[in-house]
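Q: What structure does this chain adopt?
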Amino acid sequence: MRFLSWLSTTIFRILGWKIVGQRPTEPKFVLIAAPHTSGWDVPIMIMAAYHFKIKLNWFGKDSSFRWPLGLLTRRLGGIAIDRSQRENKVANMAAQIKAADEFAFALSPEGTRHKSHWKTGFYHIANQAGIPPDLQFYRFWHQNGRDWPHHSPNRGY
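A:
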């Protein structure tokens, strides 16, 4: 992880990005990665996680997990979602988080790069796991990433 942290930090520096914030202090958390506006969001999210030395798990559409890209996406913490099937992923992910001593999970509340309303899966995962959702956002036009304070999952969203 040390090499990937150094590599990610170096790439951000070369690209002129400034990462603002710090690693969450909680051992378990759900990162809300927003906005999801580009195909570059996932690689940048993964690099930001490595920058902060976080082993991140994240949902992605199943087409991103086909050969040969699937080997890499799974190794980088990706979990394939077949959006045509109802698989109860929220309850399953919440149970995995609850059972783990440390767990970092990220997902985009938009669920897609198309402008729409936020879906509430992140809230239900955090609430069922009993942990706070942590809002992260990326401002590509300013080339920086930032974190916001943790929010209690008991609040209404």
